[in-house]
Structure formats: structure tokens, C-alpha cells
UniProtKB/TrEMBL annotation:
GO terms for cellular component: membrane. The chain crosses the membrane at residues 28-48, 69-92, 98-117. This is UPF0716 protein FxsA. InterPro entries: FxsA. Keywords: Membrane, Transmembrane, Transmembrane helix.
């Protein structure tokens, strides 16, 4: 079931992204659309670097104090994935990327990710295939 959903998403997301880019292009014009996509990429790179540095500093501090950096590690994963989405062309991926990078929205997303992984681990829906 999860594999089918993943395949469906991999097929549907690019089609939806192209449709949204086309609709925005029709509404504001080709060059403003390209400029807007470039601007979101530049802002995304800047935000990713800023948040990544802060997260790296907190991670180092927690490791020096012999603390388990679970929350900070999840922050780093969100920032990395969000940065990737912001550099990729498309407005939907940009919105998701900003949600992953901005600290006040990342808190909610981290809660959802923790809930999802706890549910999967508790229900033991993970299959390990050994060869």
C-alpha cells in the first residue's frame, strides 16, 4: 500500500508542479514567474545556510555535553530536505521547503514525523529483508 502511494506521488507531484507553474505563468507572465522561482531558490539557499549553521552549533554543543541530539538531528534532516525542495523548481515544493526550514513551522512538522515513526515502529510495519 505504501509503495503504491509512493509511486503515485512520484508521478503526480511533477505533473501538479508543472501545472501550477503554467497557471502562475499565465497569471503573471513568463519572466515574472521565472524571477519568482529564482527568488525563492535564492532565499531558500540563504535560509538553509542560516538554519543549518544554527542547528550545527546546537548539535555540537549537545554532543560536547554528552546529550543525545535527537531533536537537533531531526531539525537537520528537515532543513536538508527543505533546502533541496527550495532549490528544485516549483511552487508547491517551495511551500513545503519553507515549511520545513522555518523554525516555527518545523516544530509542527517534527511532531508529525515523530508521531508517524512511532506509529510505524509500534505497529511493527517495517519489514527487513536479509539476503
Amino acid at each position: 500500500m505504501l509503495a503504491r502511494l509512493l509511486v503515485l506521488l512520484l508521478l503526480a507531484v511533477p505533473i501538479i508542479e508543472i501545472a501550477v507553474i503554467w497557471l502562475v505563468g499565465r497569471a503573471i507572465g513568463f519572466w515574472p514567474t521565472m524571477l519568482l522561482m529564482l527568488l525563492t531558490s535564492v532565499i531558500g539557499v540563504w535560509l538553509t545556510r542560516r538554519e543549518g549553521r544554527q542547528t550545527w552549533q546546537v548539535l555540537q554543543l549537545q554532543l560536547q555535553n554528552r546529550q543525545t541530539p535527537t531533536g537537533v538531528a531531526l531539525d537537520g534532516i528537515c532543513i536538508l530536505f527543505g533546502g533541496f525542495l527550495l532549490v528544485a523548481p516549483g511552487f508547491i515544493s517551495d511551500v513545503i521547503g519553507f515549511l520545513l526550514i522555518l523554525p516555527f513551522t518545523r516544530t509542527y512538522i517534527k511532531g508529525f514525523v515523530r508521531y508517524f515513526f512511532n506509529k510505524v515502529l509500534i505497529n511493527k510495519n517495517i519489514m527487513i529483508i536479509r539476503r
